[in-house]
Amino acid sequence: METLNIIILAIFVLFASLANAKIHEHEFVVQATPVKRLCNTHSSITVNGQFPGPTLEVNNGDTLVVKVINKAHYNVTIHWHGIRQIRTGWADGPEFITQCPIRPGESYTYRFTIQGQEGTLWWHAHSSWLRATVYGALIIRPKEGETYPFTKPKRETPLLLGEWWDANPIDVIKQATQTGAAPNISDAYTINGQPGDLYKCSSQETTIVPIDSGETNLLRVINAALNQPLFFTVANHKLIVVGADASYVKPFTTNTLMLGPGQTTDVLIVADQPPSRYYIAARAYQSAQNAPFDNTTTTSILEYKSAPCPKKGGASSNKPIMPSLPSYNDTNTVTSFSKSFRSLRKVEVPLEIDEDLFFTIGLGLNNCPKNFDAKKQCQGPNGTRFTSSMNNVSFVLPSNFSILQAHKLGVQGVFTDDFPAKPPVKFDYTGNVSRSLWQPIQGTKVTKLRFGSRVQIVLQDTSIVTPENHPIHLHGYDFYIVAEGFGNFDSKKDASKFNLVDPPMRNTVAVPANGWAVIRFVADNPGVWILHCHLDVHIAWGLATVLLVEDGEGLLESIEAPPEDLPLC
Ligand SMILES: *[C@@H]1O[C@H](CO)[C@@H](O)[C@H](O)[C@H]1NC(C)=O
Ligand SMILES: *[C@@H]1O[C@H](CO)[C@@H](O)[C@H](O)[C@H]1NC(C)=O
Ligand SMILES: *[C@@H]1O[C@H](CO)[C@@H](O)[C@H](O)[C@H]1NC(C)=O
Ligand SMILES: *[C@@H]1O[C@H](CO)[C@@H](O)[C@H](O)[C@H]1NC(C)=O
Ligand SMILES: *[C@@H]1O[C@H](CO)[C@@H](O)[C@H](O)[C@H]1NC(C)=O
Ligand SMILES: *[C@@H]1O[C@H](CO)[C@@H](O)[C@H](O)[C@H]1NC(C)=O
Ligand SMILES: *[C@@H]1O[C@H](CO)[C@@H](O)[C@H](O)[C@H]1NC(C)=O
Ligand SMILES: *[C@@H]1O[C@H](CO)[C@@H](O)[C@H](O)[C@H]1NC(C)=O
Ligand SMILES: [Cu+2]
């Protein structure tokens, strides 16, 4: 009798919560499209011929059904970056992790429900370097009848920061894979697909962001760049940070944001300056030493509606006002910015830990293999090939099954579950590391986690080849960043600094260069979840691993059955 009551109550609650929820159906046609930038036209892979791709706008609780039709001549998959995908891991998207690629001429329908998330996320291709041009915003507003925890903005503008090659980005990564050297750096950054008027042939199409004197607008800033953490600022205007990675934060004011690739930041901006035109600008935060990088600046223009019209011929008095940006290597600005983040409310951080993990992250160099042509294939430093690893394992994608499928079907030989819980060799991670430690092993190793286990991961950067700020992204979860710091993590000394009251919740943590970050979460979403650096060049080199969360025993504690149209290898 009691069970029956509970079931009736559960059904009632289910229907009540579905009453307002909508189902949004979309079709994404992945296709080659001519795109003109920096004076040249490239046949770029886009969604529905748009660059950036379509913005998806939903409310918390809604369901998205997106049929992806691949009319391009590359394999493709789409990832819904930051979406929890509770029990729907088949819709997560990373190729060979949760699905095989959608081959040219094929299609696949992604279905998932947004559960308890509000703010700015995005979607992007998760196959080779296709996401250079295949990405778009995913905006989640509160449920109908609910409000933002801040003044309702007059206007909302998504600003997608991108990275543009005056070449085919797939050729750029192919060339690097062949030579073993670092890939060519990009030629421009973009805001909503446009480099802005500091680049040749770009002034006509510069993105304009309109604003009215006195009003408060919400900028939804997304770092969709392939390989570069970026500073972001607006001339003469303060930015009030209210959210990041679709979680609200205690509002704080800053002049400059730093976003690692994969991260989003929601900011309020008040039009309290004399009516005019102000540059919105972004450029590199470069923490790796002696590495070439794209040092250009992308701009769009914040334009007051009552600003005097720009004169033809570009009279200098009509030039927008340019902000100053931090130096490329200004780690102090990055540190004070990231230390400002607190969850809006007190949160439930796991206090006890069942799985205490310690992962080193960083680069490496492979000696030239015997059967390689050293001149052609070992063009890394001193005749080596670049590599990258976590806990000295350079991740290799499977090619005949996705890991999720192999796990559910019990197929042997696709992956092993012996990823080390701590570095196999203890060393001074951020010191002068002996050259004998620079070459990792290769493998498709996962960490198995029991459903419901409370997990802590220390992410420790190494100085191998160079220290670097790595944006580490976990699929299927949000996590609390309870602390970060420089040097080697010291469990005795550093545990006392943990914020277990109101730490920020994110899906991507920018781990400080030559430092560490500690994240915590409860493994309550069964499935196969990739944990990786969101610099795509580092994924290609193997800076990734997989967390395999087993099914629980309860009714809603196991992953759903795979969709019938799931692509096979
Ligand atoms: C990379 O840069 C080199 C040197 O500028 C150039 O020769 C090569 O064509 C570029 N590769 C690609 C794929 O664009
Ligand atoms: C950007 O890099 C180029 C090539 O290394 C260099 O010539 C130029 O001075 C740099 N520009 C800035 C603004 O740092
Ligand atoms: C940052 O770069 C400047 C030169 O561009 C250099 O003088 C300075 O020492 C660098 N700072 C750090 C912290 O590396
Ligand atoms: C390459 O070799 C030179 C000379 O032996 C050395 O100074 C340099 O540190 C080496 N670089 C790397 C990345 O191993
Ligand atoms: C899948 O590929 C791996 C690596 O190439 C191989 O060892 C394994 O036997 C293959 N499994 C099946 C079921 O084909
Ligand atoms: C780093 O260690 C190597 C030997 O392992 C030594 O030759 C080199 O001088 C050291 N470099 C620094 C900057 O201490
Ligand atoms: C990684 O493993 C290789 C092969 O066993 C070894 O030579 C190297 O020293 C290891 N490096 C680290 C950092 O553990
Ligand atoms: C496309 O994906 C299939 C597996 O589904 C794989 O066999 C093939 O090699 C992939 N093609 C490319 C160009 O990566
Ligand atoms: Cu990285």
Task: Name a few traits of the molecule.
569 residues; mainly beta; Immunoglobulin-like; 6-stranded mixed beta sheet; 7 helices; 32 strands; globular; disordered N terminus; binds 2-acetamido-2-deoxy-beta-D-glucopyranose; binds copper (II) ion; glycoprotein; copper ion binding; EC 1.10.3.2; Cu-oxidase_C
Secondary-structure topology with pairs:
Layout lengths: L1 H17 L4 E15 L2 E8 L8 E4 L3 E8 L7 E4 L25 E7 L5 E7 L9 E7 L13 E10 L4 H11 L8 E4 L16 E4 L4 E8 L6 E5 L4 E6 L2 E8 L1 E4 L4 E7 L6 E8 L13 E7 L26 H8 L16 E13 L6 H4 L6 E7 L2 E3 L7 H7 L31 E3 L2 E4 L4 E8 L8 E5 L4 E8 L4 H4 L10 E2 L1 E4 L3 E8 L4 E7 L2 H6 L2 E6 L20
Parallel strand pairs: 1-4, 3-8, 9-12, 11-19, 20-25, 22-23, 24-32
Antiparallel strand pairs: 1-2, 4-6, 5-7, 7-8, 9-10, 12-17, 13-16, 13-18, 14-15, 14-17, 18-19, 20-21, 25-30, 26-29, 26-31, 27-28, 27-30, 31-32
This protein binds 2-acetamido-2-deoxy-beta-D-glucopyranose (8 copies) and copper (II) ion (CU).
